[in-house]
Amino acid sequence: MPDAPARVSPLPRGFVNRAARPPLTVRARGPLEIIQVAAFDAPAATAERLSKHLGLAVTATPNRAVAAGDLTVLWHGPGQWLIVRPPAVPPLVDALAGVCGDGAALVDLGHARTVLRFAGESIGDVLAKGTSIDLRPASFPPGACALTALGKINALLHAVAPAVVDVYVPRSYAHTLIEWLQHAVRDVAVEFVGS
Q1: Which residues of the chain have pLDDT under 50?
Q2: What is the 3-state secondary structure (H, E, C) of 87-111?
Q3: Most buried of 124, 127, 130, 176 (most Cβ within 10 A)?
């Protein structure tokens, strides 16, 4: 009697070959100066002063970010922005204090926020597991930013480039976000770069 052919069991339903997809990389950015600017009663005037000082068009348009070189300005609520850059002299908060005067409050969040850069083709699929924001490129193109919950953690997402998103979270929740990511993502290889 001939040997019966070996039976190959089918892959479990919903199985995705992790090796077939390029990994998603997660890298901590920093150190960074992160200054929150909150205009008191004239957001347009504050935006104009910031634009003149920083040399880029700061906008009061919701969910938009502008960048030039190492400097990024992210919308952070009505009349509010996060201004982000690598550390420099003079400190950013000191330079902006003179620009904004009594028209805005400034808060240095550099030591209170962690910025994680997610990069890879599967970024939309991965982040969609923890947020209700439509992250498809047509709805969340480069330059878009949004305040949201990500894995039940308050976060600011910034589409830096195609397949690159910076995630700003309170520093005390960064480890929790990484743990959520490790548990939530089973069909994508995630590579953590740096500490």
Answers
A1: 3-19
A2: CCCCCHHHHHHHHHHHHEEEEECCC
A3: 127
Specify whether the CB–CB gap between 64 and 76 falls below 8 A: no
> Distance (Å, rounded) from C-alpha 111 to C-alpha 87?
12
- Using a 10 angstrom Cβ sphere, with 0-12 exposed, 13-18 middle and 19 or more buried, the burial of residue 95 is middle
Exposed / middle / buried, residue 13 (Cβ in 10 Å: 0-12, 13-18, 19+): exposed
Q: How would you list the strands of the sheet with 80-85, edge to edge?
A: 65-68, 71-75, 80-85, 33-39, 104-108
Residue 79's H or E segment, with its range, is none
Closest among 134, 112, 135 to 24, alpha carbons compared: 135
Q: What pLDDT score does 171 carry?
A: 96
pLDDT in tens, 17-51: 444 567 899 999 999 999 999 999 889 999 999 99
pTM (2 decimals)?
Answer: 0.86
Distances 38 to 17, 44, 49 between C-alpha atoms, Å: 47, 12, 13
Write down the pLDDT at residue 195: 64
In the chain, the domains with their CATH numbers are 22-28+112-193 (3.30.1360.120), 31-108 (3.30.70.1520)
* DSSP 8-state code for residue 11: P
CA of 143: how far to CAs of 37, 50, 63, 157, in Å?
19, 18, 9, 10
